[in-house]
Amino acid sequence: MTGFEVYKMYLALKQHFTKEKYDFYKYNGKVRANEKSFEERRDRYFFKKLATKYSGAKLLGYFVANFVNNPKGYLRSFSDDIYTDWKIHQESFTYKFKQDVNTLLDQSTFPYQEAFDRIFKLEPGKHPSVLRLYLSQDISLETLVVFEHCLGFVSDFDRVLTDPIWKETRLKILKYKPFLSIDCTEYKTTILDTIRTKL
């Protein structure tokens, strides 16, 4: 992979994470980019260095990890440490998901089956507890993505929530979803098992 090809992947992912209508997979990562103007960029060496360091799925993972951390795509904030932390988080996510479900249930009282439904409860002028716990970094973005993929809550929230915080979070959830491999049967079982252990 050349520095210019890495740059094109960066541009495509930047479009994906910042623009509602652009989909990295739908457009197969295609963007308009000019090699001559790339060679005139001051940051071209960043992309050339990445081309020697990562390729294929690893490069995609590097960019996804950094865009999830900083959706605006400021290169100064991109780092290998963010990518390494993201990989570790992905590898232990099943365990982390169970912890997140526990955290959510701890906010409620018995009966826990109903408590789980209450974490998505919408009230005017108030964020639901699932969103509040994400915003306070008590649960992960991946957990929200799993909930959206397997249970579908974003469209319900859209009917009530109109604030910029929700809109930004919503975009993150929807844009991150295609990059995660989610087995709904496994995660639904984890939710039910976690509820049972609290009974």
TrEMBL record:
Residues 2-80 form the Bacteriophage T4 Gp59 helicase assembly protein N-terminal domain. Keywords: ATP-binding, Helicase, Hydrolase, Nucleotide-binding. One of its GO terms (molecular function) is helicase activity. It holds the Pfam family T4_Gp59_N. It comes from the Viruses. The keyword Amino-acid biosynthesis does not apply. InterPro entries: Phage_T4_Gp59, Phage_T4_Gp59_C, Phage_T4_Gp59_C_sf, Phage_T4_Gp59_dom_sf, Phage_T4_Gp59_N. The keyword 4Fe-4S does not apply. Residues 109-195 form the Bacteriophage T4 Gp59 helicase assembly protein C-terminal domain. This is DNA helicase loader.
